[in-house]
Amino acid sequence: MRTSHVKFYQTGTFTVGNRLLSEAERSVQSTLERTNALNSGHRACQGCGEALGARYAIDAAMRATDNQLIAANATGCLEVFSTPYPQTSWQIPWIHSLFGNTAAVATGVAAALRVKGRTQTRVVAQGGDGGTTDIGFGCLSGMFERNDDVLYICYDNEAYMNTGVQRSSATPPAARTATSQAVGSEPGNVFGQGKNVPLIAMAHEIPYVATASVADVRDLETKVTKAMSMHGARYIHILVPCPLGWGAAPHDTVNLARLATESGLFPVFEAEHGEITDRRTIRRKVPVEDYLRRQKRFAHLFKPELRTDVIAQLQAMADRNIRRFGLLDKEEL
Amino acid sequence: MRKPFAVTLDVGSSLANLTGSWRSERPVYVDRLPPCNATCPAGENIQQWLFHAEEGHYEAAWRVLTRDNPLAAIMGRVCYHPCEGACNRGQLDESVGINAVERFLGDEATRQGWCFDPVTTESGKRVMVVGSGPAGLSAAYHLRSKGHGVVIFEAEPLAGGMLRYGIPQYRLPRAVIDSDVQRIIDMGVELRLGQRIEDIQATMQQEGFDACFLGVGSQIGKRAYIPAGDARKITDAVGVLHQMEGEHKPLLGRRVIVYGGGNTAIDVARTARRLGAEESVIVYRRTRDKMPAHSHEVSEALEEGVKLKWLSTITAADEETITVEKMELDDDGFPQPTGEFETMPADSVVLALGQDVDLDLLNRLPGLTIERGVVQVDANRATGVPGVFAGGDMVGGERTVTVAVGHGKRAARAIDAYLQGVHHKPAGKHELATFDRLNTWYYSDAPKSIRPVLDIIRRQSTFDEVVGGLDEANALYEARRCMSCGNCFECDTCYGVCPDNAVIKLGPGKRFRFNYDYCKGCGLCVAECPCGAIRIEAEPD
Ligand SMILES: Cc1cc2nc3c(=O)[nH]c(=O)nc-3n(C[C@H](O)[C@H](O)[C@H](O)COP(=O)(O)OP(=O)(O)OC[C@H]3O[C@@H](n4cnc5c(N)ncnc54)[C@H](O)[C@@H]3O)c2cc1C
Ligand SMILES: Cc1ncc(C[n+]2csc(CCOP(=O)(O)OP(=O)(O)O)c2C)c(N)n1
Ligand code: SF4
Ligand SMILES: [Mg+2]
């Protein structure tokens, strides 16, 4: 996981590519040979983090499996913007499923491949946070429990975007959605609800669980590659900002993912068999306010009056993550 | 074609869907001017030579560097590097050690025996260059590389101007001057040493020169009136430093007073220490922070035991003492006399109060305008006399080596145009790559590497070079700290962060292109480009 950290100083160590590195050390996204699994012409919004995250993840999985990959896709923005009949943006074999049964469909594909003896072909399942943490959760937990040979990737944009930004169990507290309006004394999504699916996945003691974001492609690719080197049930949860649903500028997508991780609100870590093995430490710590201010879904925390109380609650969440996952190097604490 | 059940349309790729039509703004690749380049008086393309050095391609780096400045090894030692003051990296951690890398490249050129490209086509024109200081050398180099015949006339027995007869050896070893100069001579430049030009027009006519570049510098030490019982003990700094190059070293005595606050004062005071003076005291009328000398040179002098006496003016000099008057700064920061006097022991007093241009030669050339003691030139360094150009210390402005080199280059371009019968128009400048254009997240934290410094005892007694060079590993590291402000360094970030695959990677050295068929104009590439090499523009109608 620390591959994104610096071995020797050089221009652009945190960039997508680096002409000073040997070919083998370069990221998939910097190469001409990347699959472009999600091709141009898709109908995602300008600056869509989900489109970006999906290409990052699947291109890495393609390289890791020597292009022997099948994807099972849940309904959600990713499916809708990539495959309006009769066109598709996918440059890999994929199978459509329902909103809530992707994990089960992927399990079936993996079982079929096993029966056919095509063990070199690997399976990924992809879904949004709604499809993963809410409606598809039963199927997902079953897939974990049976340790089916599937990598499940959740693209977390923190709400049901495809149907008009409804709250999911991954929506952060205080965020405004269509179903958690910014009204009343406690505007936006409530505190104290929701679930942390990466931790729940860990509780299944599956071989591999990781979180990642579109702000660090090298870290994301390393995790996908590692996951594809393993067998059994694996889960990667990727934070993918949504300009439309978050009320943010399209050019801010990567920056918001960066602020989410650098503030501690979104902890980036990995775990094997239920135990945390590594975490991505914060490089330039920022207060949560820097992250919140750039999104209209949190606008009510700043106008008409500054809700320092609510911001403090969110900051406390970030601080807890920092403590809990050890997100700051010791000397910085 | 028979279709499967319930399928009525031919399936196809989303490439049929040209999402570029969504766009209201479009990204475009630009080259912005990095602040280092913008600030370099010699007009070096610093960012570009660092780019080559980063890859360990030192010869390529040196060739880019010397396109603008032929004196790399010299510059790497004596340049006051305004580039580093402007370097954007200074706002992140510390500026890039540009000067140290330049020195490494300059020294590497000598170690490896790199030469300038031979001149392939002769223009048949001849240009006379008066003075072999940095201005003259630079003009000669640039004129020669454009194919003109060049003769440098130099009054002194050796080339270099103030590089040799001003700057002390412990800062600039003479072998370094020799090799940088020789490389220019090797291009086919003729250097006539020990030939003082008395009449510019006459020489031009006699030898059939088509144009002339004057780089005679400012050689005459300014004097101040000090009532002196023994006038022999008062000398001037340029004279002392000049004598250092001859056989008879100056005799300054045990207690040397240097009067002035510039770099020359520091050089003389440090030279006096090395000549054996027990006390070498700089007397300056203002405070240390007001000294025009660069603070690192002041610090180096203090380390070597030079003393500073500020807020003082010398009012009289007697056989064994001088009298100084204490000053105090008024509200405007100007020193005012206080009427308090003090005597100090002194065997000699060296005046380091600046230099004047020797106007004898210039007054003989009709058409030359001289104001406030310096020759007037236009932006092309052209004087009022057709075909006669001038640069360096003699034209006023900042008096540094890099400025002189820049003048020589600019004049050479203008002379080249003049010889072709056209007027030289410099190319327009790109917009500046300011710090706020960068996304510095992408640069790893990397503090500056420090150049080794000569042991203090050896610095007090010998003329060995004080500041060492970087070794290869450190020079490489330092080059890699460059952020490539405003100029694509092919980091693939735009290629990576585009959610629409609308960035086409063209391969090493070829950079990228936008595919406007699919670019939705989100601006992610613009926001994430580390070096600010992409601009967002309104979509043309
Ligand atoms: C002690 C000292 C230290 C300095 N240190 C630095 C430093 O560290 N960094 C820096 O950037 N700058 C430094 N400078 C300033 C720098 O040296 C000058 O700005 C620079 O050398 C000017 O270059 P030039 O070519 O215009 O003139 P010069 O270097 O003065 O060269 C002029 C040449 O013309 C010759 N000449 C004059 N008249 C005639 C004639 N009639 N015929 C033939 N030849 C003639 C002279 O002999 C001389 O060789 C220093 C100056 C001094 C005095
Ligand atoms: C059973 C069922 N209920 C509702 C829907 C409507 N629906 C389609 S996509 C979607 C939201 C998807 O949200 P999420 O999984 O978070 O993906 P996103 O669009 O945010 O990427 C909903 C509610 C459906 N397709 N099937
Ligand atoms: S970082 Fe590099 S390109 Fe930018 S100003 Fe500094 S030296 Fe120049
Ligand atoms: Mg969602």
Verbal overview:
The complex is a heterodimer of chains A (333) and B (541). Chain A is an alpha/beta fold and 333 residues long. Chain A has 11 helices and 9 strands. Chain A has helices at 49-64, 77-82, 102-115, 129-134, 137-145, 197-203, 217-228, 243-246, 253-263, 288-292, 308-325; strands at residues 69-73, 87-88, 94-96, 122-128, 151-156, 208-213, 234-239, 269-272, 275-279. Chain A has an 8-stranded mixed sheet, with helices on both faces. Chain A is globular, with a radius of gyration of 19 Å. Chain B has 541 residues and is α/β, with parallel strands linked by helices. Chain B folds into 4 domains: 20-31 and 488-538, Alpha-Beta Plaits; 36-114 and 456-479, Alpha-helical ferredoxin (Fumarate Reductase Iron-sulfur Protein, Chain B, domain 2, Orthogonal Bundle); 126-219 and 357-419, FAD/NAD(P)-binding domain; 222-354, FAD/NAD(P)-binding domain (3-Layer(bba) Sandwich). The longest helix of chain B is centred in the last third of the chain and has 19 residues, at 401-419. Chain B is globular. The two termini of chain B are 42 Å apart. The model of chain B has no long low-confidence stretch (mean pLDDT 93). The chains are: A alpha/beta (333), B alpha/beta (541). Chains A and B meet through α1, β2 and α9 of A and β1, α18 and α19 of B. β2 (87-88) of chain A pairs parallel with β1 (12-13) of chain B. The complex binds flavin-adenine dinucleotide, thiamine diphosphate, iron/sulfur cluster (SF4) and magnesium ion. Thiamine diphosphate is lined by residues 50, 75-78, 99-100, 127-131, 157, 160-163, 168 of chain A. Residues 34-36, 46-47, 50, 87-89, 96, 98, 482-485 of chain B line the site of iron/sulfur cluster.
